Queue: 3 jobs
Job 1
Amino acid sequence: MMRSMFSAISGLKAHQAMMDVIGNNIANVNTPGYKTARITFKDVFSQTLRGATGPQEGRGGTNPQQIGLGVSVASIDNLFTNGSSQRTDNPLDLSISGNGFFVVGDNSGRYFTRAGNFGLDSSGNLVNSSGYLVLGWQADVDGNYDTATEPAALNLFNKLTLGAMPTTNITMGGNLDAGTPDTSPDNEISYNVSIYDSLGNEHILTLHFTRTGSNTWDVSLTTNDSSITSTFPAAVTFTFDANGKLTDTDTVATDGIMTLPITGITYNNGAATQDITISFPIDNFTMFAGDTTAKAVDKDGYAAGTLESFTIDQYGKVVGTYSNGGRQLLGVLAIADFANEGGLQKIGDNLFIDTNNSGNPEIGQAGGRGLGVINPGTLEMSNVDLSQEFTNMIIAQRGFQANSRIITAADELLQELVNMKR
């Protein structure tokens, strides 16, 4: 009777632990990145009343006779199935589709989380909701980074200013009006194009298209900018065929692009000497009757700019957008994976730490080496299944009740023994 009572007590304790696990799961049903826990039981040592015997002397063998001594908790496992994604459209809300954990840290060490509700602190550090620094690799001024090095805190204010880039290439496109006369003074069409020097100063150049014949135009370049001290090359002749297609110039190109090279542009403002190539793709520069639409369809170069916003792509690259329209890689988020993610230990704040049974973290960039990709503007929600948890709650409740009845029955039997003395 005492054995049954103690077995039932172990059953009460085990089912109480089951209720504790279920209660914590339900409490975290709306916690971003929370991973549901599952409890399993095992029987404890069994008392052997009689051992097994083998067949002998014409008699069959017998099985062992044992009485179990109760139940205990076998394991409490974290289930790392992906939770559903909730769209927030916040650029700093991130979720991982597939394997991996975000890496965060402080002076005490580094930790791992699936909760990607990040933000910025006053210093521009990318942090999680508890202030832990999000780790990754800072990009240099050329956009280079090395994932083979240890990840460090990502600071998005380390490139608040994007330096100026001088103009080196201008691509023209559009149409020259075939109705333009070929005699002065109405045979010239002008177009202003802006360029930037190495200091980010803007300058205006004027392209002159002067019709000199039925199918020929001279293209020249001038400027009224007093800071430009160099002279420009002589005019280049463009020739169009009967179909209005650019066919020949003084500069011969083999790739279908006519060019007007400008070398050695000098300034009196301290900017570096500059070379610019103005390109005219023959398939995109025509002479038809109608409006003149010749313009710069593409060009590089920009003034210095300040950081206005940033985006994070599926590979964890943080790209800044600047007031001058330029873009620059600021850094890359680190993603970690483990040989046995079930071996990770929860420490609160939606964080895990690695243990001897999880293996060392394999840290890399999202989308590489079996790691998942990042979904910006979304949060991974808890993977708790409420219907399953409520079902487990009923099972735990009934198990608790059944074990309590064993204690009640054992108590009644003991009471009967006491009453036998009367």
Job 2
Amino acid sequence: FFLKDVFADGDFLRMNTVFKFYFQAWALLSITSGAGLYFILESFRPQAAVARGQLWLQRGVEGIWIAGLLLLLLASAVYPLVGTYARTNHYAQRTNSLDGIDYLQSCKVPDCDYDTAGDYTAIRWLNSHVSGDPVIVEAVGDDYSSYARISAFTGLPTPMGWVGHEYQWRVNWLNKGLNAVDFDSRKSDVDTIYTDPHSSVVMNLLARYQVQYLYVGLLEQMKYPKANLQRFSAFLHVVYSAHGVTIYQVPVS
């Protein structure tokens, strides 16, 4: 069995096949291993008709099995203790919370790529002041990163989210040529919005994707260091500006 996806032609061709089915496999193994262990140990019970030499041999094999199982159990018990500490020790200064964006208030390098406090207050503002589902533009980047954080934490649609996941499901999985063209154009169009010096080009792209808001934060400044990101104020309305973040609203024509 093989799941053909975006990794099919690379070094990780079976990654998702193994990764996804391991969720079910380990759950089933955890159930059957208990029953299996019972039958293994039951087979070592001495029988009345077994000769003395065979009995010692049987007990020796049983001892080896038990010792091996104990070693495996002890070895597997190390990771939950050591691994948990290694993964969570740098969170010692944080308070527990069910708020998914609470960490943004104080996340800095190296835990985050930049100081995210500005994003935190801007996201709070968007969630409080923007209703409906208007499209918002933010910088496009790789998976498992800070990119797409605004659309993720506000629920607002954006022209392009994490590049890898969008490609995997919309282009590679569905295998449609039109999806591939749209995928390539969306990424480059977002880059053009932030970098093109001509307001007419930017406005045309914003209209194409029915964009109502444009987000400029520290991440956008890091990705487009040579672009004049202040130029948007000449043809867009500034509706929010604080802590290194500016949010522009597209004028209604």
Job 3
Amino acid sequence: METNSLLLALLGTGITFLSTVFGASFVFLFKNDINPAFQKLFLGFAAGVMIAASVWSLLIPAIEMAEAQGKVAWIRASMGFLSGGFFLWLLDSLLPHLHPGSKTPEGLPTGWRRSTMLFLALTLHNIPEGMAVGLSFGFSGAVEQGFSLASAFALAIGIGLQNVPEGMAVALPLKQATGSRFKAFMYGSLSGVVEPIAGVLVVLLAGSAFGFMPWLLAFAAGAMIYVVVEELIPSLQEGKHSNLGTIGVMIGFVLMMILDITL
């Protein structure tokens, strides 16, 4: 594994981590939670970006790379995608966490604080995002395999944009749970640390066995789609303003698609 690949993976995931920090910093500006209508729009945008990134930045490159390796592309893409979804389902089922706006914790029963479980909820979301960005940057020099630094930056920009409202969405409830803006900011920011960690680990794994790259790309896609379907879409349909959530999904999808195609 070349040092450059790890440094590039750190660069890309560092961008997305800082965007989470920026989103969490809004806890110092808002006295109360953001308007529910805007929250639905932001969550929809995040879902749209993740869906588009899964298709344009992960699944399609995974299929193209598997074909270039002389493998049966649909088998590797399908197995990787399903494995990614199963992995997130396993974490979702075992790790105690609480989503913003929800009163019922998920995962194994625990006596952990509400603030800790809110923190873990966003951390779960950030794992597949870190994997996706890390892989894209770590192998951005493999142009012949369908990668480029421009497409990696496109993915980082898209994920970074949706990390801002995500960081905001978790920091504001954390302020109420902890009673401290600073603690809420720190929790919200630290939830993004998992992205560089996941990004570097997956690049190390892919570097030791480059033939697994199609599987890993599809794995990250499956993990992201699980987050969208299991967590984001149900949140968008609860209560009022679900139409704004749908509009957000479409805007996020189109923006990510444009970034991936044009850059």
